[in-house]
Amino acid sequence: MKLNWHTIREVIRVDLLTMRGGKKNGALVAVLIFLVFCLAAGFMISPVASLYLPFILGGFFVPTLFHNEMKYHSEKMWSLLPIQRRDLVNARFLLSYGLYAAVSLVVYLLMLLSMRLELWYRVTDENMIDIISLVAKGMGMSKMGFFNMVYFAAVTAGMIFMGSTLRTYFRDPEALRTQMNLGAKGKSRIGSKKEITAAAVILGLFIVGALAVTGILPIIPAIRPVTYVFRQLAGAADGVIFGVILLTVAVFQVMVYYIGTLIDYDKREL
After folding, report:
1. What does pTM read for this prediction?
2. What is the torsion angle, in degrees rounded to the nearest 10, for the CA atoms of residue 219, residue 224, residue 230 and residue 231?
3. Does residue 192 carry a pLDDT above 70?
4. DSSP, residue by residue, 169-182
């Protein structure tokens, strides 16, 4: 499939202009505040704080980029323009993942600088990176290798999350608009069944994990063979192989979302 690069560039330019337009883009402001907070925590407390950033950005990138379009219900505008649907999908996947990759890379490089400067010693005596060093040593890895592995895991989760959000937006913008509570005019929204289920699952996993760590539930001995295999895989090449595997899984999952988006958007009535 040959890409129409001229059309893709024009769509990206319009999306960037639309994102900055309007009186206020609350999603953009929230993302920028969260970005600054995570970077400050990464330098002053521990680089571990940056792990939340790629994961959270995966869920907020699409609402941030297309906030004004969702807010003013202008997504149908594209059906009036001489543009093929696959070009719009290509442009927005490239824009979303291009910006996501750039931000994730910049944050990663800044956190490598943080690990070298170790400014947190001037702020507090407690240092989470020392705890990470102990965990990494137990897995046969360096602290840099362990940090790379968990950062790649966060990026993987963010990429998959963003692909799912993009597909939802192209398939049913109203569903995403409802999730983001746009146009509600101050009315609170009751969580959907999926959100309640997800929250219940997360809470359940947290409780089970706490009971396992305290020894109330004898889960750790039962999963010891699995953890042994994981440690061997994670420790290979100081976590690089495991990180590459995670990113490969993310790329394939994004391709699934991309193909599904092309099919869904082509069938959708505009």
Report:
1. 0.77
2. 120
3. no
4. HHH-HHHHHHHTTT
